[in-house]
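Protocol step 6 of 9: fold each sequence in the batch and record its structure tokens directly after the sequence line. For illustration, a two-sequence batch is reproduced in full.

Sequence one:
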Amino acid sequence: MKFLTEYRDPEIARQYLEEIKKVVTRPWTIMEVCGGQTHGLVKNGILNMLPKEINMVHGPGCPVCVTPLNLIDKAVYLAEEKGVILCSYGDMLRVPGSVKSLLESKANGADVRILYSPLEAVKIAQQNPEKQVVFFAVGFETTAPANALSVVHAQRLGLTNYSILASHVLVPPAIEAVMSDEESHIQAFLAAGHVCAIMGTREYYPLVEKFRVPMVVTGFEPIDLLQGILMAVRQLENGEAKVENQYSRMVKEEGNPIAQETIFEVFEVADRMWRGIDVIPMSGYEVKEKYAAFDARKKFNVNIPEAPENAECIAGAIMKGIKKPYDCPNFGTKCKPENPLGAPMVSSEGACAAYFHFSGIMHQAEEQVV
């Protein structure tokens, strides 16, 4: 296949669905790790078309969703109290902090800007030497190279008014945390193709060995997802547990060594708090001491205490595959995109947002599962 439309071909999708139905003989629970995969499954109606034996649950692979309250509060503090030009990807603006969101700060007059790349923020710093510019560096391994490159670029330019507020999280430790949860009932995983395009597939072998679960790397188009589900079901039915790469057009076993080199030039692995989950050891990136001048937390001595999560939000249970959005009594009533209780309702990769925007499809899917 060479063209995007071929990965959305209804006839090919039908063939994969028929093959899945032929192969499956008993119930299986499969987690798609990434929120992009979740949206692909929901908006294309795939959950509604899978056989009832297959239960897809939704993982913690939405970086916006797992960014802790404390970091949202720090970003708000920098924008309002320190008067910085706070730059961010668009999804982050509507995520609620303990008091307010960045969008509310912007409405109150703070200089908060939506960008598509951290290198744009470096350019803004060049153009505004009298102002401090902070980029809210959120993401999994996928966005880490660009965020790291912005730091390297700013250093080479001699900029003293640029820094990042890092909130990077890592997929393999999250999978391990999910599988180690006593409530977990996950039997296979669809691993995120874009993360593996950067980091490769080698770091998934220890997880497969430890937990004896199939791990299939997939893309995000309907055919990618259906083929990945078929590969996972075949392993499950055959009693196998191995790493397979459905997304071979983009993912190599070694990943992208140049991107990895850029990441580890600027970042080091550290413990990280995951919103709605807890601290997961060695599950995030922090800015190395050699680049401390570009670490906003150190540069501005930001010391904001941890705030409690909204007790009405069950995002943690949803992202661990224990519950689904419709299990939340506030879904679609008290919690909506315009007034969210938690990040999964506003992120473009959030499971709750996917269910909300495609509720008709999802109601049918839930009825079939029942």
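Sequence two, same batch, same settings:
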Amino acid sequence: MAIRFLRTEGDRVLRKQAMVVKRFDTALAKLLDDMAESMYHYEGVGLAAPQVGISKQIIVVDAAESGLIELVNPEIVGASGEEIDIEGCLSVPHTFGEVSRAAKVTVVGQDRYGQKLEIEAEGLLARALQHEIDHLRGVLFVDRALRILPQETDATSEMDE
């Protein structure tokens, strides 16, 4: 496993539509392992492959109560409710903003072996899944922010993605 270099706002890979993963092999497993190690190293709640320079539909999330979740080709197939909360992002350092997200989501995708998964989530896990799936579409949280908080604010986020 290895810690991957994080791409930050301004890097073109963060604004591209990520490609669908078709090969479930040892290279994918290594990337998932590296992404998880990198997420923990940088103290994030989630990480999407574009954030480490790989334009593929792969995310990892660990929202405490969930444990590590790996999703390949994830898609939100159901959403309900609305919650506004503060978000941050490893790819947009030192920036926080208020973002409206669905309160509950259903996400489908595949695991590292290509097996289908379905996850029903609420709270921080739902927010993190939506945030990371946005990365796969080239969307950053600042694009969705209702307002960006002033940098001198001592805002601490539940999610510094």
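Proceed to step 7 once all outputs are recorded. Observation for sequence two: The beta strands are 46-48, 58-62, 68-80, 83-89, 92-101, 104-110, 116-122, 145-148, 159-160.
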